[in-house]
Design goal:
This protein has 196 residues and is of the alpha+beta class. The chain has two domains: 3-15 and 23-36 and 104-195, Pleckstrin-homology domain (PH domain)/Phosphotyrosine-binding domain (PTB) (PH-domain like), CATH 2.30.29; 45-98. 46% of the residues lie in helices and 23% in strands. The protein contains four helices and seven strands, in the order H-E-H-H-E-E-E-E-E-E-H. It has helices at residues 3-15, 45-66, 70-98, 169-195, and strands at 25-30, 104-108, 111-115, 121-126, 130-137, 142-149, 160-167. Strands 1-2-3-4 form a four-stranded antiparallel beta sheet, sandwiched between helices. A three-stranded antiparallel beta sheet has the order 5-6-7, covered by helices on one side. The radius of gyration is 22 Å and the shape is elongated.
């Protein structure tokens, strides 16, 4: 038994008591402890906007120092807005690149769960709200599985969901796609039964 299989068994044992009636685990796994920028879903394009904001701040600061007229006041406001936006995006990027935590993932026949390393449920999404599922292979047979989320309510701000640093991302993508398809079929059958 390899390490991934052992970890999968440990996650199943830990998470099984949290399952609702009729809910079965289709797949579970964990992110790698050390991930590259790409495996964290980051690329050079994620740095463009913060760099643009920083450039705007520098230009505004120079303009304010040169000309303290009405234009200077407007540029000062832009400077503070740029600093605020740049700071927020930088914190998000640095957190994802440098301090990304290792997550546990569980896919059941009803939901996708993202857990903390200690097993606390961080995110619980209905499979029927997931679409556009695709895998991005990385190095060492790890990668990211990404999907679009159309949940309404608590997790509606998560437009895209990424399972980062997982082993065999293409295989996991196929498992999640099949689970989502089956969940949609079951939801339609349930809706038809309730309609009659």
């Amino acid at each position: 038994m390899n390490n991934a299989d052992k970890n999968s068994i440990d996650i199943k044992e830990m998470f099984s008591p949290k399952l609702e009636e009729g809910e079965n685990i289709c797949w579970c796994g964990e992110s790698a402890e050390k991930l590259t920028m790409r495996e964290r879903g980051m690329s050079g394009k994620h740095l463009v906007f913060p760099l643009f904001c920083l450039s705007l701040c520098i230009i505004a600061a120079v303009a304010v120092l040169v000309n303290m007229s009405n234009v200077g006041i407007i540029l000062t406001v832009l400077l503070f807005a740029g600093v605020f936006v740049f700071f927020n995006f930088s914190v998000i990027i640095l957190h994802r690149v440098l301090f990304g935590v290792q997550n546990l993932y569980v896919v059941t026949n009803k939901r996708l769960y993202m857990l903390t390393k200690r097993g606390k449920i961080d995110v619980a999404l209905e499979l029927t709200a997931l679409s556009s599922i695709y895998a991005t292979p990385g190095r060492n047979n790890t990668g990211t599985v990404s999907m679009r989320n159309s949940s309404v309510g608590k997790y509606s701000n998560m437009v895209y969901v990424n399972l980062m640093g997982i082993e065999n991302p293409t295989k996991v993508c196929d498992i999640i796609t099949e689970a989502v398809d089956n969940a949609i079929i079951m939801e339609k059958k349930k809706s038809q039964r309730n309609h009659y």
